Amino acid sequence: MITGCLRSFFVVLFALASVGPSLAAGKLVAAVLTSDLPRYREAHRSFVKTLAQKGFDQSSTDIILQTPNPDPISWANAIRKFEAIGADIIITYGAPATLVAKQEVYSTPIVFVDVYGPLETGVTKISAMTGSNLCGVSSKVPMTTLIKTAHEFKPIRRMGVIYSSREAGSVVQLQEIKRIGGQQGFSVIEANVTSPAGLNSALNAMLSRIDFLYVSESSTGSFMLDKIIARANAARVPVLSQMPDAAEKGALVSLEVSPVEQGQLAGEYAAKVLKGVKPGQLPIITPKKIDLVINLRSVKALGLLTPFQGLTAATKILK
To answer: Taking the model in full, what pTM does it have?
Structure first.
């Protein structure tokens, strides 16, 4: 099995040439991460395990994994290399890398993983299936469930949102909160944070003005989540998120889809495609298990009361 990070085209070619004739009879699977996030790595490990269980193990399948710099040019370069070396299938983790692959690849099958809202981000034109060379796993969960649970703790008048304009899924989450805010009567104060350098100023500007802080799924939000939660909790502002392990890190409420299940579903789809199924014939799928997690330690630290309704709805409670 071949894995790598920021591997050059020539290194990849050398590696493929070195495996000899066995590669010609096997399959080449190429994967690219939007950024080096733990949830993408966890999903990929699950993907590899599932693919092996379906008959595509290291004896018959070579897997190349690249984690380019998190920008469109680097994603495009990685995907072009995959096309150049004749990948049988391309796996993309996250909406940004998937959107670039959609633009760059016209015939090679693509299986996407952890895309929040394939329809809303523009990955697909219809919600059921792509009808093209793409198929995959949506990580979208019902935002209204998260907001409703937050309301159980205290009224929402102003919701702060940290998002990144560079990541389509993050923008979709911002738009969803704005839509819900319009329906439920709370305002949204947004901060576009595309790098760690802008985080402090964003938090300084918003924490004294908001009742809750929603941290969207973005690279910066994920890498800096511990710091964001610490700052918000110190200001007595509860944090909401849909990122895996957000509640474990101190968020009051999180609504989480398992990266392991996403990787498993993507592995099952990839196996079908490698056996000849057309990607456009496979429906877009969403993991069945969605956890609504409440952190009682944060409830106590924030001086909030624990609502019975919230506990009843929760699938996981951290004490």
So the answer is: 0.89
